[in-house]
Amino acid sequence: MVESYQELLDEILIDEETLQARIKELGQEVSADYEGKELLMICILRGGVLFLTDLMRELTIPHAIDFMAVSSYGAGARTSSGEVRITLDLTTSITGRNVLLVEDIIDSGNTIASVLELLRTRHPKSLRVCTLLDKAVRREADVPIDYRGFKIPDKFVFGYGLDLDEYYRNLPFIGVVKPEKYLDPS
Ligand code: IMP
Ligand code: MG
Q1: Nearest atom of ligand 1 to the alpha carbon of 156
Q2: CA–CA gap between residue 172 and residue 159 (Å, rounded)
Q3: CA–CA distances in Å: residue 84 to residues 32, 56, 122
Q4: CA 176 to CA 130: how far, in whole Å?
Q5: How many Å is the Cα radius of gyration of the chain?
Q6: Pocket of ligand 1 (CB under 6 A)
Q7: For a Cys staple, 7 with which of 3, 90, 93, 150, CB 3.0–4.6 Å?
Q8: Inter-residue contact 24 to 54 (CB < 8 Å)
Q9: Confidence band of 184 (pLDDT split at 50, 70, 90)
Q10: Binning pLDDT at 50, 70 and 90, where does residue 1 land?
Q11: What share of the chain in percent tops pLDDT 90?
């Protein structure tokens, strides 16, 4: 049996109203910046899905979306190493296009750094990063963040796309996992 989220929740870090208000602001920023340009938003599965779909609804400009999935080598589900492997590639070409990578959280930055490196080899016209959450204190790779929802402390969070062992992505808020429930699998 999977525990109910209440048993894992230490505190709500960002409530639904605060999340949605910030996403609205980000949507306005992105809309203004890409006005008159062709935009392709790429979401890295699976954590960024809720953020992507809410952000899309705040955009006032035409845009396309695509998805990719990656897995990191030699790491548990809660940390990532330097190297990533593509497990699901894009179905569209990004060459000559304005690409915005939409991510749930940037932690060490290793995942996004590898993805950026790979996407650059395909020669997009522009390549920017939009992340809902930024765990800046844990950064290892130097990642340029163009749009940031919230800076958060070094705590393991779940909800709103983010999972704890693949569950609880549906929660409408970002919650902190009780430290005793968060045991590193490695
Ligand atoms: P990075 O390569 O260390 O930046 O890791 C990014 C990925 O790690 C995210 O896309 C998440 O899947 C996962 N991750 C990092 N921190 C958390 C967290 O606090 N909760 C849930 N997933 C996390
Ligand atoms: Mg994950």
Answers
A1: 19
A2: 7
A3: 33, 27, 17
A4: 22
A5: 16
A6: 47, 80, 104-112, 156-158, 162
A7: 3
A8: no
A9: low
A10: confident
A11: 88
- Of the residues 51, 162, 171, which should be mutated to test ligand 1's pocket, given the most ligand atoms within 8 Å of the CB? 162
Q: How far apart are CA 105 and CA 31, in angstroms?
A: 21
Q: Which two tokens stand for residue 18?
A: 């605060």
pLDDT at residue 71, rounded to an integer: 87
Query: Considering the entire predicted model, what is its pTM?
Result: 0.94
Residue 94 neighbours by CB under 8 Å, 6+ apart:
40, 42, 119, 122, 123, 124
pLDDT at residue 136 tops 90: yes
Q: To the nearest 10°, the Cα dihedral for 86, 88, 92, 93?
A: 10
Atom of ligand 1 nearest to the CA of 152: 19
Q: Whose CA is nearest to atom 11 of ligand 1?
A: 105
d(CA 144, CA 109): 10
With tokens 């790979």, the residue in question is 118
Q: What is the pLDDT of residues 43-79, one digit of tens each?
A: 999 999 999 999 999 999 999 999 999 987 655 555 5
66 counts as catalytic:
no
Tell me which of 65-74, 103-112, 119-128, 160-169 is least confident.
65-74
